[in-house]
Each structure stands twice: as C-alpha cells, then as structure tokens.
Write a structure and sequence with these properties.
mainly alpha; 74% helix; 10 helices
C-alpha cells in the first residue's frame, strides 16, 4: 500500500475506532467479540483500502463489513447461548445504578434477538440510518428492513424486563446520545 493511502487508512481507523467498536458491541453483545469483529472488518478494509477509500462513504462500507463479519462469526460458531427468563434482582442505590440496570436489561433483550433482527435494530435505531441505508448496509430490501424491525420491536416490547422502562418515567434524566437511542428502541 502506498504511504499516503496507509496514512489515510490510519487516520480513518483513529477517527472511527470507538464508534465502530460500539456498533460491533451492539451487534455481538460482548466487548471482546466486538473488538475482534471490528479488527476483522478493518483488516479486510485494509486489504482493499485503495478501492474503499474512493467510495462515497468508506464508513458505510466498513459498517457493512462489520455486519458481515458478525454473521460469519455465527456461521463458524454454532453454539447456542443460554439466556435466562428473568433478570436477577437488583437494588437501585442511585441514578447511575438505575441507568446501568436499564442498559443491562436492554443489552440482554438485544442479545435475545436473532442476529438479523439485532442488526436491523442496531443500524436503524442506534446508528439512526434510514430504512434504505439500513437495507444497503445489510444487503437486503427496505421491505425486509421494515418487517425485521417490526418483528424485533415486537419481541423487545414483549421482554419482561423492558416493559417497566417503556411505561414508566425513570428518576434518571440522562440526555446522552446513547440513552436517547436506547429508549427509542423501546
């Protein structure tokens, strides 16, 4: 790779690493797997960076690679995860703990979705992509995005732990981007 392209790739990774890992975490549900998936996607992008960097949106292309690498991970590892029906009892000591509990319940609910539905929810509601953009990233039609989102949201609404967060206003008033996005999913 040419030195100029190498520098461009390194600046891209430095600028987008945290965001890409966060997106991968939402797709995988595990911080270690998220980093592995991100590294795999970036390694693939590096090999074809000359072509990728000329695209209108290299980030969108790498995001699509994240989804593909996550799907590949499931194909290679056919071990089912065991999820529990209920969240363990937790005491709320302060607003920070309540927020962490809410986030934990949401992450558990996301982990319970099939990989395709989780990918749609993450791209559509976390990444705030339109239906067309989500369809492009996932390589499917906008109608598939709509139906998968509808099914995923119905499953999320049926999760026992999420109902309490969707119907009541919590004492916490976090205005961070993350909390707003998480509540939008509910």
């Amino acid at each position: 790779m040419h030195a100029e392209q190498e520098a461009h790739f390194q600046s891209f990774v430095a600028a987008r690493w945290t965001h890409l890992v966060r997106t991968a975490y939402l797709l995988t549900g595990d911080p270690h797997d998220a980093e592995d998936v991100t590294q795999t996607a970036l390694a693939k992008a590096y090999r074809s960076w000359r072509r990728v960097s000329r695209m209108d949106s290299p980030e969108a292309y790498v995001r699509r690679m994240l989804v593909s690498c996550n799907s590949d991970r499931f194909r290679k590892r056919r071990v089912a995860e065991r999820l529990t029906d209920s969240v363990p009892d937790r005491s709320v000591r302060d607003n920070a703990v309540a927020w962490a509990d809410e986030r934990s319940v949401l992450m558990d609910a996301l982990a319970g979705l099939p990989a395709r539905q989780r990918a749609v929810v993450v791209m559509r509601y976390w990444e705030d992509l339109s239906e067309a953009e989500t369809a492009d990233v996932l390589g499917c039609s906008p109608g598939t995005v709509k139906s998968q989102a509808s099914k995923a949201l119905a499953k999320l609404r049926a999760c026992p732990g999420l109902g309490q967060f969707a119907t009541t206003t919590t004492a916490t008033t976090h205005t961070t981007h993350t909390t707003t996005k998480e509540r939008a999913v509910l």
